[in-house]
Design goal:
By secondary structure, the chain is mostly helical. About 75% of the residues lie in helices and about 0% in strands.
């Protein structure tokens, strides 16, 4: 019984934390809805690419590149937060989906690894005896050399659909919430 209670407690804490970091900033933003929605879109775009570890710097580079264009500015904080869709727990399943999709796109049907073989190969590039930076470099090298082209091609539809969907859904959410708040007053 206590295991179930602890498990429930973990999920309640996770939900509260995700709500605090992802939803509340959208709700409380004083900027135009498009500004926040663009931040969500940029974060989801980079979050749905095989770039775990450098997604936030990529959001920052995107922000620097677009900030001089008046209609392209976005919420950097929301972009950072929404890159969290890919993380330590979701990286291997997401990378596998990107890899398989990429292999299908380039027509290499005969080279589709099973998930177990893929995750074993991925984990084999990780060593407990080395530093975190060395592991980061080794995993990055494995991804780039062994899986790079397929994963890069395979992530594109997910990144684009995720960014567009994130923009539309968050824009509707913000607009609807603000209209309800205005009617309440």
């Amino acid at each position: 019984m206590s295991l179930n209670k602890n498990n429930k407690s973990y999920w309640v804490k996770f939900y509260r934390y995700a709500n605090l970091k992802l939803i509340i900033p959208i709700k409380r933003s004083k900027f135009p809805p498009e500004y926040s929605a663009k931040g969500v879109a940029v974060g989801l775009f980079w979050g749905l690419t095989p770039t775990v570890g450098i997604q936030m710097p990529l959001c920052l580079l995107t922000w620097f590149a677009l900030k001089r264009f008046r209609h392209s500015n976005f919420s950097l904080v929301l972009a950072f937060a929404w890159t969290w869709v890919s993380n330590f727990f979701t990286a291997i399943p997401m990378y596998y989906i990107f890899f398989v999709t990429g292999q299908i796109f380039v027509g290499q049907w005969d080279n589709l690894l099973g998930y177990n073989k893929f995750s074993t190969s991925f984990k084999a590039s990780y060593s407990k005896d080395t530093s975190a930076w060395t592991n980061f470099f080794e995993i990055g090298t494995f991804i780039f050399e062994e899986l790079g082209m397929s994963m890069t091609i395979g992530c594109i539809p997910y990144a684009l659909v995720g960014a567009i969907s994130g923009y539309i859904i968050s824009l509707r959410f913000i607009t609807s919430r603000r209209a309800k708040r205005k009617n309440r007053l």
